[in-house]
Amino acid sequence: MGEVIKAILVPAVGIMISPLSISVLVIILLSKKYVLKSLVYSTTWILTTFVVYLISAFAVGGSTSETNMSTVVRIILLALAAFMVYEAIADLIKFIKAKGEVSEPKIFKKIAKMSPLGLFGIGFLMCFLNDKNMLLSMGAGTKIASLSLPAGQVVTAGLLYILIGCWPIYVTMFAYFLLKDKMSNFMDTLSTWLMKYNDLISFVMFLIIGISLLSEAI
Q1: How many Å from the N-terminal Cα to the C-terminal Cα in the chain?
Q2: pTM to 2 decimals?
Q3: Greatest pairwise CA separation for the chain in angstroms
Q4: CA neighbor of 50 nearest in space, from 94, 11, 83, 23
Q5: pLDDT averaged over 10-residue windows placed end to end, the chain, 218 residues
Q6: In terms of C-beta density within 10 A (0-12 exposed, 13-18 middle, 19 or more buried), how is residue 21 classed?
Q7: How far apart are CA 132 and CA 126, in angstroms?
Q8: pLDDT number for residue 119
């Protein structure tokens, strides 16, 4: 179990502190019919994150033998590390260019008006087209594949990865359900703060995770 936790912990923390998914959830919670819409978005996003992890874990594990597993995993981890460091530098440049100005993405205004079906698609796209979250899940799946675990343990490790990485989504959503009147102003402030510091948070997160993956691959 210790090796499993070590393998998934860094990517799970990356998912946990990734600001974009929380920013979208906050926009949904401040809209009309927020209960159904936030449940649809959150459930879809969490499930697709789990699916990306599983695809990575079983694809790497199933396409390599035990004799060349370490080489394949090292190559994948090196590629992921390089891309994450690249993303970190790109995010830092964007943050510096913004000069502290808050610029709300145009799609956020559309998200607030979307139906639950539309938010199902957003939850799906947030994982598969958001390269940062997808890279983190691929990294977790690849590292688990290197342990050559039975299928059942791979799935269990994935559930643990989701539990650690996605708890801010659960907590934010249900806290708002229970304490809407007290949290409305806080959520509005949180949304603004996350949009302002999104690139800086992403820079720190991906630099640390990229270096961590690089150290494991070398």
Answers
A1: 24
A2: 0.82
A3: 58
A4: 11
A5: 83 82 85 88 90 88 58 79 86 82 69 84 74 82 85 92 90 88 79 79 84 78
A6: buried
A7: 10
A8: 84
Residue 53: predicted pLDDT: 92
**The pLDDT value given to residue 201:** 83
* Residue 105: CB atoms within 10 Å: 14
